[in-house]
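Provenance

Sequences were taken from public entries as deposited. Structures were produced by running a predictor on each sequence independently, with no templates supplied. The record for TF-B3 domain-containing protein from Theobroma cacao is shown for reference.
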Amino acid sequence: MEVFIKRLTQTDTNKRLAIPTNSLVYFPGFRGNHSVELKVKDKSHRLWTFHCSIRKKRYLKPVFSSGWLEFIRSNNLRIGDKVSFRLEQGHVSGVEYGIAVQRKIRLLGKDVWADVL
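Predicted structure for TF-B3 domain-containing protein:
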């Protein structure tokens, strides 16, 4: 199940990934806390740990911080790439989340989205 899709901005590639607030329902670990660590598997089955936090007051503004920039740098991601974050069903290893990345390329005169990861 897809949790969110986002095209990366400069802030997303240099500091942290801002995620849609309505995605928080898929992160049950908050339960009274303002941060949670998420185990996320990419398409090559590499496991990543992202620290997801929210503000303590009013507007929650969830972000991925710790672990996110390592993911960006390790995969040479850039502004405009499209990130798809999903909830995995039937996992065996305890990983509940998956991530995929696509990049727009020009192929035979047409723009297409190609898998980066």
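The helical segments are 10-14, 68-74.
The longest strand covers residues 97-107.
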